Amino acid sequence: MKAIFRSVLAAAILSTAACAQAAESAVVIDPPKVDETAKTVHSETAVFAGGCFWGVQGVFEHVKGVSQAVSGYAGGLARTAHYEEVGSGETGHAESVKVTYDPTQITYGQLLQIYFSVAHDPTQLNRQGPDSGTQYRSTIFVADAEQRQVAQAYIAQLDAAHAFGKPLATTVENLNGFFPAEAYHQDYLVQNPGSFYIMVNDQPKIANLAKLFANRYREDPVLVSR
Are the beta carbons of 220 and 63 closer than 8 angstroms? Predict the structure, then answer.
């Protein structure tokens, strides 16, 4: 029995290590060749979906020029924008993050570069890490024609360059509403640093952000609960 237990324990440790290694991977990519036009306003929004919103929110809370990152749901109806229903994978929603940013400090295209590089793996279809289902899909929800143009051009650019070794699974969808998630999901990465899920899947993303985007990284995150 002890031998079986040791075997199972060793397998679990190896599995955890493999997950951690996979989560730690990030891809160095070129910035977008097409970006939004120069802006004089100081507040715009972008909505990204890339797996569990805890990690995506955590990444953008550490980005200079971002004033707020809110976890929520996009792609479905208001009446189904609840965690338990979205988890069924049948609502059309994706776990998403609404990023409010200053376009004079960081552009939409530069946010996309971080999104593709460190916030998630854009080659995975309807899954990220241990999570699977359409609610975990890689999707950019665009609010206008310019966002759509920048997003589609960047996906084409990265695919043409074979930046990830295989085609991106990221879709571009019209933003027809964003619905903030329940309060206990907000700032989850910061509020639960000892969570095994957070340590394995999300903390490495913050480390990669600091390493690959040092000039855009800020140590103190901007929180929803500030």
Answer: no
CA atoms within 13 A on the CB side of 210: 12
Superfamily of domain 2-212: Peptide methionine sulphoxide reductase MsrA (3.30.1060.10)
Residues 180-217: tens digit of each pLDDT: 999 999 999 999 999 999 999 999 999 999 999 999 99
* Annotation marks residue 19 as catalytic: no
Q: Give the active site residue among 26, 29, 49, 52.
A: 52
Q: Among all chains, which residue has been given the structure tokens 């990465």? A: 189
Instruction: Report the SS3 class of residue 62.
Output: coil
Domain boundaries in the chain? 2-212
Residue labelled with tokens 């907000």: 186
Predicted TM-score (pTM) of the model is 0.90
Structure tokens that stand for 89 in this block: 């994978």
